[in-house]
Hints:
mainly alpha
Amino acid sequence: MIDLAELRAVTAYAVACAEPALAIFERDRPGDSRPRAAIEAARAFAEGAKRSKAIRDSAWAAQRAYQEARDAGQTAAGEAARAAVAAAGAAYLHPIAKATQVLHILGSAAHTAYAFELDGATRRPPPADPIVRQVLARYPNAPGGRGRFGELVRELDASLRDKP
């Protein structure tokens, strides 16, 4: 079971992880505010707002922004948009202990790291607070596959599980 405070903490962590990637997205796709809107909707939930349709709608819009960036060959911007999608998705973490749910917890961090990597830089996620690590510990290890993004998720997963 995940209580509301834990869900808000996981979402706040996802927002903190995704937010730095906005600089890449907005540099490459100026005027497209969809990823920022997804992050803002997730932030509002993390700060106490109700979980609403606005979070899902903004996540779908950020997903379209990712697809457009990808189709334009802007891979770093695309990963930045996916970080925003993942931040909004964190608000919908399911309590059933499946490895795929780890992506709701760590997806925004991994997409952000990948966006920076594609952009020729390195970006480490912010430290996860004890609540986030406790929630993560309730799930199996991150799933295999998913290319470089999956590798980054598994690396972060392992590093957070190793901390006391």
